[in-house]
Design brief:
heterotrimer, A mainly alpha, B mainly alpha, C alpha/beta, A: mainly alpha, three-stranded antiparallel β-sheet, two-stranded antiparallel sheet, 5 strands, globular, B: mainly alpha, 11 helices, about 75% helix
Chain lengths: ~650, ~290, ~160
């Protein structure tokens, strides 16, 4: 019994206990204990193994092959049963294909002995910590949120036991996935996350939820088929099913043989990370309750996709497959950013922004130089923390305002000052220097500049346009939150339904978000640079003085406005009223119209449907994405 | 440790507003002469600033003043980093931070005029940012550095290699300096359909801080222009002087455009003049390292 | 020289005039009269303005607006009433909806005569208002100093009457 094994098994264990406990309060206690325990174990794993990386572990289970095959078939059967019950033909076909592929593939992959079934290195640990800490905090949040959710949505059947079980198992599958070196095991965990997300997206039980759940299932099982095919090809061509063997071989003379399996696995990664043309499944997934969205977008599921791409980066670097992946990535980056401008639903804006950022990670992984992999790793870290914070805060805000429309969050600073603070920190982390995402984008530009390749000026131009657009929709949202139409109104009136679990998670993630921006040079020095040195022979970090500048800036960006706010609070000066063309206004910007009728000022933001219409941008993006995917499949055929 | 850069950065903090204010004053005199007027005295911006600082007016809410003051602090900080020789690409992103504070201050007032002004300012930021990034990348291509002093001392006639990028930069500087035809978000003149737009409801010291930040900003924006002409003293003076006059001329000779045009034209300029210059330049310079 | 005298920023409100005086106010900005010589800027925002130019007579509907714009201007401030209507209601004085001149609603510092008022005299009125502002500023400073000496908070002053 080693620590990595304990880490992976703990969440599902607590999940099983949660599944059998009927009493809400006891179960909540179990779930929160489980969340904290697995986070602590994840951190313990990172701390204890930091000096002996990479850890190579061999599973001693006899008949591992049979177990894996059994797991695959069981999941295929599960999907098949669901497909039959819900009368859907396509998932049934996919389930049959999955089972058939698993059985047929056994011929090549069956007898292969792995040298190490699990390898834990810095990248695994990054993901382990993200899954443990961010995922754990989302579980704590869910304990509070789901109670309110069921009070507000009486029509939804209360299946919280299944919910807790699936959420916890999801984390367990993620642990397994990020530590796997044997690709057959990785595929098994991969399919588990697909299944878990299927159950969670469909939680609402209505038609929309069912549709979205099956869309996610279809696309991800399709991606899983590509993964499975990739493994079979790899085994047939090289006689190995191990990731580290694959990466080592990619530098050798056998590289040409590996192009097809790498392309197929990259395709699986693209599907899971919701790149174009597979984006719709993630956009559809926002029908799920907020904790599910937070989990899918930040620490699990999509991160599994980019994790695989980053893992494959050394094999993709400089190859046709790598360039195609990076083009799909940059296309997704820019399409996601553009489409987010015209989105009004808060969760949809967050979803599109996730898609966009994942696109950037895919771009970096596809080009795959050591500098860009450094960027990709930081994007994963910063994005996980900030996006989790944003999703759960939006969830809380939507309970207060009764709507997910961004417009309804106008002036939230009065009604929900604490939630507004959380949201503002989250939004800042997404788009403005010196916070994480922008520092990464800046590093990406510098890396492209040093790349000395034909693609770099194009990539820089795309990055410039995409990142300029993100300013538009994030700053607009931030401005809306801070709009004060009645400075004398009592504050915090909408916060009475907020549970302490939600506040705890949000506050912790806020602190974490700022901490990652401050401590990232240390993460770079002690985790990412050794990793890059080990796998690329070169280490990369931003110039130390520049890192120092960004860290100092983070401090100033937090301290200056806070300090000024405190100073201005002290002055006892009164407030004046806003200029309304001379009209005398009542609090909340009401005024008497021409016939003496009391009117209120109504303001709406720009959504720029003309240039940035979400529908047409996604349509064009999906068309281009399909084309690029076909080219990717073309390289496999050749 | 850096040597002279620290002194330049300190000098910038002290002298920045003087240079910026003089640039503003000269602008107003030249504009008046172009229109056949006498115009205000050269030092008029300083008179205005002094007066604004003595005016006593209550803010609209408790967030307004801290946000505007943050805008000023970060505008100064941007310039300090610039003249300290930090990475100019990073600095442009910090500049966005300063602008975001101003936009948030405008949003917070809740008045419809400042809200629309804030949104238009965001549109303008979206419009000019790609071109500025492309310009910096172009300069990096010429001098192989993102350090202000390194580019300056490389003595490369960047305007010869990057004519399209230079013109594109002048185009977006009209936006950044809030000049016509892009004075959509706010304007010094009362012929604005938005009253004062972005700066509506900012009276006295609040407006003084916005003005001061604007002066600080204009100094390093012109220093950015200087980088295109750093090959000799003569070309530096002629180049920056020409750019300054060109911007004033365009300000006086054009009518305000609609936001759709501002955005799409700026992006087209960034694509055609910016990327259209950058990509061939990059490919050629890659061939001869 | 006082700072306020060197940069008197204006706000212009048309109460209910025939537009004659308004056109003359705008004429002040043209190259021929060039109000910017004196550092004048016409702003649209009362919070940035020092001198309030009012044309036309005050009616019952716009009196609260006039008063509100005046209230939104920072202290010290000066009001210039331009033309006959702004003085007494002019030819509209007998109308059922007209309250009278500007002074019925807010205190006026300078009256500019004429129907319509000439740009030269409007400019003259602005310059006189700027001088009055300087005096008000000085008085205000003295009052505040006195208040400090007496250890009290400065009293909220309302602008004085007409000159």
């Amino acid at each position: 019994m080693t620590l990595p094994f304990i880490v992976a098994v703990t969440p599902p264990l607590f999940g099983f206990i949660a599944l059998i406990i009927k009493d809400d309060r006891v179960r909540r206690f179990i779930v929160i204990t489980g969340a904290i325990a697995q986070a602590a174990l994840a951190i313990a794993l990172a701390v204890t193994s930091a000096h002996s990386l990479p850890l190579r572990l061999v599973a001693t289970l006899p008949g591992l092959d049979t177990w894996i095959l059994g797991g695959e078939l069981a999941m295929a059967a599960f999907i098949a049963v669901f497909a039959v019950v819900k009368r859907r033909a396509f998932p049934l076909l996919l389930a049959i294909a999955q089972a058939a592929l698993a059985l047929v593939g056994e011929r090549w992959t069956g007898g292969v002995e792995a040298q190490a079934h699990f390898v834990v290195d810095q990248v695994s640990l990054l993901l382990v910590i993200i899954v443990g800490v961010v995922g754990g905090l989302i579980l704590v949040y869910a304990a509070g949120y789901m109670k309110t959710f069921h009070e507000e949505h009486a029509a939804v059947r209360d299946r919280r036991r299944l919910f807790s079980f699936t959420m916890l198992s999801f984390l367990g599958a993620m642990y397994g996935l990020v530590m796997s070196n044997d690709l057959r095991l990785m595929l098994l965990f991969w399919e588990m996350t697909t299944l878990a997300s299927f159950i969670l997206i469909g939680y609402g039980g209505d038609e929309a939820a069912e549709k979205s759940a099956f869309l996610a299932l279809n696309l991800n099982v399709l991606g899983g088929l590509a993964f499975s095919l990739g493994i079979i090809l790899l085994a047939a061509r090289t006689g190995s099913v191990e990731l580290d063997v694959l990466l080592a071989a990619a530098k050798g003379p056998e590289a040409a043989l590996l192009a097809a399996p790498v392309a197929l696995m990259a395709l699986a990664g693209l599907v899971k990370s919701a790149q174009l043309p597979f984006t719709p499944w993630l956009l559809g997934a926002m029908v799920a309750p907020t904790p599910v969205s937070a989990l899918l977008h930040s620490s699990t599921m999509v991160k599994a996709g980019v994790f695989l791409l980053i893992r494959l980066a050394p094999a993709m670097s400089g190859t046709t497959v790598g360039y195609i992946v990076s083009f799909i990535g940059i296309l997704t980056f820019i399409a996601g950013a553009f489409a987010a401008v015209s989105a009004r639903n808060a969760k949809r804006v967050l979803a599109l922004s996730t898609v966009s950022n994942l696109g950037l990670i895919a771009t970096c992984a596809g080009i795959g130089t050591y500098e860009l992999v450094w960027v990709a790793l930081f994007l994963v870290l910063f994005h996980a923390v900030a996006k989790a914070l944003l999703f759960i805060s939006v969830g809380t805000a939507s309970v207060g305002t009764g709507s997910l429309d961004i417009e309804s969050m106008g002036g939230l600073v009065t009604g929900m000052p604490r939630i507004t603070l959380f949201l503002i920190v989250g939004i800042s982390c997404m788009f403005v220097a010196p916070f994480g995402m922008l520092v990464s984008k800046w590093a990406a530009m510098e890396a492209f500049m040093n790349l000395n390749s034909i693609v770099s000026p194009f990539m820089i131009a795309f990055l410039a346009f995409g990142s300029a657009t993100t300013v538009l929709f994030w700053a607009k949202w931030m401005g809306l939150l801070l709009r004060i139409t009645d400075p004398t109104a009592p504050r915090g009136l909408l916060e009475d339904k907020v549970t302490r679990y939600e506040l705890f998670s949000e506050a912790s993630l806020t602190i974490l978000a700022i901490a990652t921006c401050v401590l990232y040079p240390l993460v770079s020095k002690y985790a990412f640079e050794p990793y890059l040195l080990a796998s690329y022979g070169k280490a990369f970090g931003l110039d130390r003085s520049n890192m120092l500048v960004t860290v100092l800036m983070v401090g100033m960006t937090v301290a200056v406005p806070a300090l000024l706010l405190i100073i201005s609070r002290r002055s006892k000066e009164g407030l004046s009223t806003a200029y309304m063309s001379g009209r005398v206004t009542s609090p909340g910007l009401g005024f008497k119209g021409s016939k003496g009728i009391e009117l209120k000022v109504a303001m709406h933001s720009y959504y720029l449907e003309g240039p940035f219409g979400e529908g047409k941008i996604l349509k064009a993006g999906i068309a281009a994405g399909i084309l690029l995917t076909l080219i990717l499949l073309g390289t496999v055929a050749i | 440790m850096k040597g002279i850069e620290i002194y330049v950065a300190i000098a910038y903090v002290i002298l920045g507003p003087i240079v910026g204010g003089l640039l503003d004053g000269l602008d107003r005199v030249i504009t008046a002469r172009l229109q056949g007027r006498v115009g205000p005295p050269l030092l008029q911006p300083f008179y205005d600033l002094r007066k604004l600082l003595t005016r006593r007016i209550a803010p609209v809410n408790s967030l307004q003043m801290p946000l505007i003051a943050s805008h000023l602090v970060f505008a100064i900080l941007t310039g300090v980093l610039f003249f300290y020789g930090s990475d100019i690409l990073l600095i442009i992103f910090v500049l966005t931070l300063a602008s975001v504070f101003l936009v948030l201050a405008a949003y917070s007032t809740g008045s419809p005029y400042s809200t629309i002004g804030a949104e238009r300012e965001l549109l303008l930021m979206t419009a000019y940012e790609p071109m500025i990034i492309i310009a910096l990348v172009g300069l990096f291509g010429v001098a192989k550095s993102f350090d202000f002093y390194a580019i300056l001392s490389s003595k490369m006639p960047a305007y010869l290699y990057l004519p399209g990028i230079y013109l594109g930069l002048v185009y977006v500087l009209e936006m950044k300096l809030r000049k016509s035809p892009f004075d959509l978000s706010t304007s010094h003149h009362a012929h604005q359909e938005l009253v004062m737009g972005l700066t509506a409801d900012m009276g006295g010291p609040a407006l003084a801080m916005v003005e001061l930040a604007h002066w600080y900003e204009s100094v390093y924006l012109f220093a950015l222009v200087l980088l295109f002409f750093s090959s000799s003293w003569v070309s530096a003076i002629l180049g920056v002087g020409f750019t300054y006059l060109l911007i004033i001329l365009l300000d006086n000779a054009t009518a305000r455009v609609k936001w759709e045009l501002a955005l799409s034209f700026a992006w087209i300029v960034a694509l055609v003049a910016g990327a259209g210059n950058l990509i061939p330049f990059y490919l050629i310079s890659r061939g001869s390292p | 020289m006082s700072s306020i005298e060197r940069s008197p920023w204006l706000i212009h409100y048309d109460a209910s005039s025939c537009n004659g005086c308004d056109i003359e106010v705008l004429a002040c900005l043209t190259p021929v009269y060039d109000a910017e010589r004196f550092g004048c800027i016409v702003t649209g925002d009362p919070k940035q303005a020092d001198i309030f130019l009012v044309t036309g007579s005050v009616n019952h509907l716009n009196a609260p607006i006039l008063k509100n714009i005046y209230d939104q201007m920072p202290e010290p401030k000066a009001v210039v009433a331009i033309g006959a209507c702004a003085y007494s209601g002019g030819v509209f004085a007998e109308c059922y909806n007209v309250a009278g001149g500007v002074a019925t609603t807010i205190p006026v510092d300078v009256y500019v005569p004429g129907c319509a008022a000439k740009p030269e005299s409007i400019l003259d009125g602005v310059v006189r208002a700027a001088m009055i502002l300087k005096e008000k500023e000085k008085a205000g400073r003295k009052a505040r100093a006195l208040a400090r000496k007496e250890g009290r908070r400065s009293p909220k002053r309302r602008a004085g009457g007409a000159t």
